[in-house]
Amino acid sequence: xxxxxxxxGQLIDAxxxxxxxxxxxxxxxxxVGIGEAPDGFTADRSIDAxxxxxxxxxxxxxxxxxxxxxxxxxxxxxxSRAAAAGGITRMLASPATDPICDTPAVVELVTRRARQTQCxxxxxxxxxTRGLAGELLTEVSALKAAGCxxxxxxxxxxxxxxxxRRALDYAATCGLPVILSAFDPDLMAGSRMHEGWVSARxxxxxSPVAAETAALARGLALAEESGAHVHFARLSTARGAEIxxxxxxxxxxxxxxxxxxxxxxxxxxxxxxxxxCHVVPPLRSHADREALRQAVxxxxxxxxxxxxxxxxxxxxxxxxxxxxxxxxxxDSLLPLALRLVDEGLLTLPQLAAxxxxxxxxxxxxxxxxxxxxxxxxxxxxxxxxxxxxxxGTMRSHGExxxxxxxxxxxxxxxxxLGGRLIHAAEPAGMKTx
Amino acid sequence: MLNQLxxxxxxxxxxxxxxxxxxxxxxxxxxxxxxxxxxxxxxKKVPLLRGRTVIxxxxxxxxxxxxxxxxxxKRLSADVLNINVATSATSKGESLxxxxxxxxxxxxxxxxxxxxxxxxxxFIASHVAPEVRVINAGDGSHAHPTQAMLDMYTIRRHKGExxxxxxxIVGDILHSRVARSQIHALNGLGxxxxxxxxxxTLLPKDxxxxxxxxxxxIRNGLRDVDVVITLRLQKExxxxxxxxxEQEYYRLYGISREHLALxxxxxxxxxxxxxxxxxxxxxxxxxxPQSVILNQVTNGIAVRMAVMSMCLEHKAAETEA
Lengths: 433, 321
Description:
The structure holds two protein chains of two kinds. Chain A has helices at about 75-85, 105-115, 140-145, 160-175, 185-190, 195-200, 210-225, 240-250, 285-300, 335-340, 350-360; strands at about 5-10, 20-25, 30-35, 45-50, 55, 60-65, 90-95, 120-125, 125, 150, 180, 195, 205, 230-235, 255-260, 305, 380-390, 405-415, 420-425. By secondary structure, chain A is an alpha/beta fold. Chain A folds into two domains: about 5-55 and about 375-430, Urease, subunit C, domain 1 (Roll), CATH 2.30.40; about 55-365, Metal-dependent hydrolases (TIM Barrel). In chain A, the strands form four sheets. In chain A, strands 1, 2, 3, 4, 5, 17, 18 and 19 form an eight-stranded mixed sheet that branches. A six-stranded parallel sheet of chain A has the order 9-10-11-14-15-16. The longest helix of chain A has 17 residues, at about 210-225. In chain B, helix 1 crosses helix 5 and helix 5 crosses helix 6. In chain B, the strands form two sheets. In chain B, strands 7-6-5-8-9 form a five-stranded parallel sheet. Chain B is about 40% helix and about 15% strand. Chain B is built from eleven helices and nine strands. The interface of A and B includes residues 196 and 272 of A.
């Protein structure tokens, strides 16, 4: 049953007209027709999408799957199922595993485990330096041959600018984009939250805005000379977004993403020592959040990621400063994005740009648009389903989320990867699928 | 955010001085005043907490704070258990929560907690059984509310009401839980002017939002103040590139006789202890007529008695009803 007719959904992509209600035809893993069935098409299966949005599958640029090395927190199996249920069809897995993803063997281990689950496509990011230690180059061409579509510093920025310069040059030689964390490790050292009046009150070491701007300035200076495509991960400040906008106006081949939680939460959410709000880079000021929202709306920031970091309960059941950072976020990525539309920040096509096409472009993937010939990666969303985000509705193995208790509207009813159904939930059985 | 007050506005836990209403702060001081008589008697005990169990849970070493809490609890006739966790269970891999629940199972009524992490006392208060009370005896750089209240008590005893007073806090504000709690208590009690005096490296960003005037030059910072509070300078600050040397710090921010001369002639000098002579304070000042440093230690007992009894009095009413 690889020929599917998706009936009467509202088709939305980055180029799309949000009013269009139409049939979409899938065969051989690709989109083969929109509106009109191609000649001789007979559907093996038909999906009723009336009342639903049909989006390209979401592409998530930042997830930690915890495997190998921290299977007590989550696994590739559990998280790729959760991602599929959240409408995510492809996700870039952080190389910061144990062992570090710096050899073809680890890349193959991850992709093999993901293939066994047959849910969301897991794309391992290769480590930018060996052991993410910031000293020696990895065998980039071998990593690429094993299936890496990008290199990443895995949240551990390269301290030595000369090593970073050479790593960018070498990545450019091999034609892979490089994903850099936008913070200076020394200015970030020891910090647990944004440096500002809330950290002053709470007596928690803060990370200054300069931790981001200094790292961006260095990264941009090196990117300009290397010719590598540099993508800055998880911007957190207004000044950072401003610097990036200027660099893009100057024509540098750079891009950036923001974690979804940065568009909703601020340092104020930490003020009760809520360890669920402990993230890196930290939640910043209200003004930063508003500027990041603006940068997402105007396209300066071209992708929104989940920055998914599932944890076991113990990781957060300690005082704030001792807790492990991160939010389990694949379950809430899509509903929070729909909320941005409800709030009037994004149109539906803009949502599709930031969550589907934008991240796909960073990785050079052909998915992310609803066009004949594109991969049939699809997310069929019923935007009207109300639900509470809680441990009972989370598919991720990690239940660490500051959004627990939030009421959302809209959920993925079907998710398809390359024309194959990787998630299906009937309207009455949304919880179990 | 966890509320440290009961629905009727009385103290449930004592975690921070931030946001406490002025009448409550004043009641703590008045209650301490009433206990100071007890301390002066030959039999230094009142039966207010007879049959109650207080556990001093110290994850960080401390002599003065722990002993004054112990004395305060004993003078209220409570049973006291001291647990020094630095050498205890968590080093055997037991989690903080497991340990708490074990101690709760011993029917304790109150935990007095000292911990190196900011927010630890809030964390513990939000995880204990509803009838258990928590007093923060210092959490990271966040708060040390009983120290701040004993300082307020000391100021009130020597200088009267706080409204007309100018108070300068000198030293490492950035890392000081004492300073944060003092600032909130001083502002809560309506002190005339609160100043912080320190180099930029030892001040938190946006510190003025806490309700203080910022001075980098001690000559302006101490001018015409009624109260000088100096803070302990930890030796490790030199390693984090926060200061060049103890000598330079002393020259710029040490409470010397020369610097103290800028304050009002009857200004008092305070220090939460333990003091580093010749680093943040000159010996002649620490031992001089304007110093009330030892009075602070004595006052610590009455103030801690006040806070402990106030946290448990509501509970007593509940049990009787």
